[in-house]
Specification:
The protein is of the alpha/beta class and 284 residues long. The chain has eleven helices and nine strands. It has a domain of 160 residues: NAD(P)-binding Rossmann-like Domain (Rossmann fold, 3-Layer(aba) Sandwich), CATH 3.40.50. A seven-stranded parallel beta sheet has the order 3-2-1-4-5-6-8, sandwiched between helices. A two-stranded parallel ribbon has the order 7-9. The structure holds NADP nicotinamide-adenine-dinucleotide phosphate (NAP). NADP nicotinamide-adenine-dinucleotide phosphate binds next to helix 1.
Length: 284
């Protein structure tokens, strides 16, 4: 069945905002879901809905062929995504593409990976044409360190472990392909960048792109936790520490070719990201 209208959840977020133009370029009609009517996305229809409000989601799903399901991490994220998937099935949606995470596993010690695995398992039982995308750590997550990088340093509890980080623009391009072409039913695609990088290599690439000295410091988990206590809620901070322990164990270093296989071009490298985002890492 040809995809005509796609509902994009998280439309104003990291992946969703890049997915909308990628879908438009493929000639499909996009409906952008946001909780805030002031967040309307130029050039596409906006559906104001909240995953916490099933009636608003059911309204947003009317007349849609395919959905991209993505929401930020939250203690109830799995339940909200499962509820959304059920509503999509009830609305007669044909195709569902789920944004999960690299190494999602129901018995993972990382809570985010368990939550994603729970949603994956549910979606696979719904009888929809579904596909799972499991991206690794986002290169754009480095923007969270931009404040200290602009001062010449950043720190995280990861040591010299390598991670095959991915650019969210590549996740969006891959999702657009999966949403608009056939042959992906039941597939799980692990999405990574073209190589695994240590944080010291990341520091070097951003230093090169900005022309400034930047040093990475390994930070003990308790020091990292102390700095972020009171800034992040406890569930998010604990989850982030679990994520970093997983990276530090070297469990997120595999390189997969799905981005190239599906989009027909190489995944963006750290050098591309550092060049394109250099201004974000320079003091204002
Ligand atoms: N960060 C990483 O490195 C990484 C790596 C792999 C996987 N992931 C996964 O990526 C997913 C997205 O994470 P993210 O932090 O980057 O978020 P995001 O995709 O940037 O999504 C944020 C958007 O979600 C919308 N939103 C928030 N609460 C909502 C609700 N109750 N109902 C409807 N929409 C809501 C907001 O839009 P409005 O304000 O416009 O409503 C916001 O723009 C998570 O599942 C995470 O596990 C992240």
């Amino acid at each position: 069945m040809k995809t005509r209208t796609v509902l994009v959840t998280g439309a104003t977020g990291t992946v969703g905002s890049a997915l909308i133009p990628a879908l438009q370029a493929r000639g499909v009609t996009v409906r952008a879901m946001t909780r805030n009517p002031d967040h309307s996305v130029p050039g596409v229809e906006t559906a104001v809905a909240d995953l916490q409000d099933p009636a608003s989601v059911a309204e947003a799903l009317k007349g849609v062929d395919a959905v991209f399901l993505n929401s930020p991490s939250a203690p109830d994220a799995a339940a909200l995504q499962i509820q959304f998937a059920d509503l999509a099935r009830d609305a007669g949606v044909h195709r569902l593409v789920l944004l999960s995470q690299y190494a999602a596993r129901i018995d993972s010690p990382v809570r985010f990976l368990r939550w994603h695995a729970e949603v994956e398992a549910h979606v696979s039982e719904l009888g929809l044409d579904y596909t799972v995308l499991r991206p690794n750590l986002y290169l754009q997550a480095l923007l969270g360190f931009a404040g200290t990088i602009a001062q010449g340093w950043f720190a995280a509890p990861i040591g010299d472990a390598a991670v095959s980080l991915i650019d969210t623009r590549d996740i969006a391009d891959t999702a657009a392909t999966v949403l608009t072409t056939t042959g992906h039913t039941g597939h799980t695609y692990t999405l990574t960048g073209p190589r695994a990088l240590t944080h010291a290599q990341i520091a070097y690439a951003i230093a090169y792109a900005t022309g400034r000295d930047i040093t990475f410091h390994d930070a003990p988990a308790d020091q990292f936790t102390a700095v972020l206590t009171g800034i992040l809620p406890p569930w998010q901070l604990d989850g982030l520490v679990e994520d970093y322990a997983h990276y530090a164990r070297g469990e997120a270093a595999e390189v997969h070719t799905c981005v190239t296989d599906l989009t027909g071009r190489p995944a963006r490298d750290i050098t591309d990201f550092a060049r394109d985002y250099a201004a974000a890492f320079i003091p204002a």
